[in-house]
Amino acid sequence: MTYALTDAALSALLANAAGDELLRVRRESGLEGKELGKAGDAAAQALLAGLLAEHRPDDAVLSEEAKDSEARLSADRVWIIDPLDGTREYSEGRADWAVHIALWERGELTLGAVGIPGEELVLVSDTVAPAPAPADGAQISLAVSRSRPPAVTEPVREALDASLLPMGSAGVKIAAVVRGQVDAYVHAGGQYQWDSAAPVAVARAAGLHTSRIDGSPLVYNDADPYLPDLVVCRPELAPRILAAIAENTDGDS
Ligand SMILES: Nc1ncnc2c1ncn2[C@@H]1O[C@H](COP(=O)(O)O)[C@@H](OP(=O)(O)O)[C@H]1O
Ligand SMILES: [Mg+2]
Question: Which residues bind Mg(2+) (predicted)?
Fold first, then answer.
């Protein structure tokens, strides 16, 4: 089937549309806190489900906000989406939250778009610039969850003599590596495929290292959507980061 919009153009459209909707809900709903987060999750999910059904009726979808279906396991094309990554930060009125749109085709991520509406930014894997090189002699910096930093953070920080930059949303943290604001993002202890699929596709296109914390490949559209840990970093840092993790964890912290 031929579509008027390319997959890349559609992914950017979806990220922009969901971002606008999330900003509108936050501005107009009068809700706060957890209720605002729930309303945002639901509004962005409804909008994305509608647009995907309209533009790609034959594709499967794996979304944080929709019931999972076995249909995606035999599908050739699966959109892996997180309508609102960083729900906590969104509901607190902050800017560090994101919309994730990824496309998986026959075993591999082929496209990702990460919208950061609070910064009026959408990064798409087919147009993203290579991650800029750090300044000579600059201290290495790590993006880390602001609300639940994993235990693995400290040994990695120590091994690299790095500074920590806490922020919300996996997408925002991976985008920070892509944009050269930090050198690495290390996470462990729990996450799902939708939390990382889109930003990992963008990071790979920008030339960054992406893997599990034991160095094995990140696998998407797996039957179990749980994907609890990952490393996204400048490629030259990967050996040191993976070694620090291997020396200091039993692989699951
Ligand atoms: N230990 C854990 N278990 C499950 N999900 C986790 C997690 N730590 C982080 N996440 C998810 O990863 C995303 C980024 O988290 P953080 O901002 O703390 O780094 C959030 O996604 P959602 O906001 O889509 O739920 C959060 O729920
Ligand atoms: Mg998420």
Answer: 64, 82, 84-85, 195
